[in-house]
Amino acid sequence: MAYGLVWRGISGGATLAPRRMQPAVPARRLVQFGVFELDLDTAELRKQGVKVKLQDQPCKVLQILLEKPGQIVTRDELRARVWPANTFVEFDQGLYSAMARLRDALGDSSESPRFIETLARRGYRFVAPTSASVPPTERHPLPRPDLRLEPSTSQPDPGIRRFLISILAGLLGGALVLAVILGLNIAGARQRLLRYSNRPIRSIAVLPLENLSGDSAQDYFADGMTDELITDLAQLANLRVISRTSVMHYKKNQKTLPEIGRELDVDAIVEGTVARSGNRVRIRVQLIRARDDQHLWARAYEREISDILLLQSDAAHEIAEQVGISVAKSGESQTRRGHARSIEPNAYETYLKGRYLARTRKRDDVEKAGTYFREAIQQDPEAALAYAGLADVYLFEFYQGTPRKESVSKARYAASKALEIDPDLAEPHITMAGIAEAFDWNWPEAENHYKRALELEPSSPSAHLQHGVFLVGMGRFAEAIPEIQLAERLDPLSANTHAASAFAYFFAGQYDRSIEQSQKALEIDPAVVTAHANLINSYMGKRMYDQAVHEFEKFAPMREFPPESVTAIKQAYQRSGIKGFWQEHLDLNALGRIPKLNNFEMADYYALVGERNKALTYLEKSCEDRDPMMEFLHVVPEFRDLHSEPRFQELLRRVGLPH
Question: Which CATH architecture fits 203-342?
Answer without folding.
Answer: 3-Layer(aba) Sandwich (3.40)
